[in-house]
């Protein structure tokens, strides 16, 4: 078995975020078409993917610490605006996602739908901005 070096984790994290966003979007399309089983599969898979992301993210930052953004000027302000909103909403999404899934598993679909209307767009935003933050930090302005 080959073990990837820790330096690969940011790319893995971005891929997990992108996968989560795709699963959320497809799951939403399934529920709009009243395809319950594929919706459940997508949403539980998104939760699993996001869980793997969180484990990988925490592992990376435990070993590496924080990474400074190298951009200057207006792009720096844009980066930190995206990062700040991403971070605040990422902290909120964990309890929201758990409550949303819990209500569905308990068959409380009326309450599930009410909170899912908030959870889905926030979760999608967090997943997509996670990829954007990765791209800006590691590709647009990589460390020297």
Got a strand count?
0
Share of residues in strands: under 5%
Contiguous uncertain segments of 5+ residues: none
**What integer value in Å does the Rg equal?**
17 Å
Structural class: mainly alpha
Shape: globular
Structural domains: how many: 1
The major sheet is characterized as: none
Helix content: over 70%
Secondary-structure element order, N to C: HHHH
Mean pLDDT: 95
Span from first to last CA? 31 Å
Count of helical regions: 4
Describe this structure in words.
This protein is mainly alpha-helical and 144 residues long. It has 4 helices and no strands. α1 (9-32) runs antiparallel to α2, α1 packs antiparallel against α4 and α3 (74-105) packs antiparallel against α4. The protein starts with 8 loop residues before the first helix and ends with a helix.
């Amino acid at each position: 078995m080959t073990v990837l070096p820790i330096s690969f984790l940011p790319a893995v994290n971005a891929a997990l975020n992108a996968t989560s966003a795709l699963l959320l979007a497809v799951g939403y399309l399934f529920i709009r078409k009243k395809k319950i089983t594929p919706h459940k599969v997508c949403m539980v898979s998104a939760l699993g993917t996001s869980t793997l992301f969180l484990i990988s993210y925490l592992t990376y930052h435990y070993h590496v610490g924080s990474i400074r953004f190298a951009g200057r000027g207006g792009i720096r302000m844009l980066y930190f605006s995206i990062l700040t909103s991403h971070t605040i909403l990422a902290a909120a999404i964990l309890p929201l996602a758990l409550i949303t899934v819990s209500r569905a598993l308990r068959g409380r679909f009326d309450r599930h739908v009410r909170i899912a209307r908030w959870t889905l767009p926030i979760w999608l935003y967090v997943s997509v901005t996670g990829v954007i933050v990765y791209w800006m930090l590691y590709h647009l302005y990589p460390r020297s």
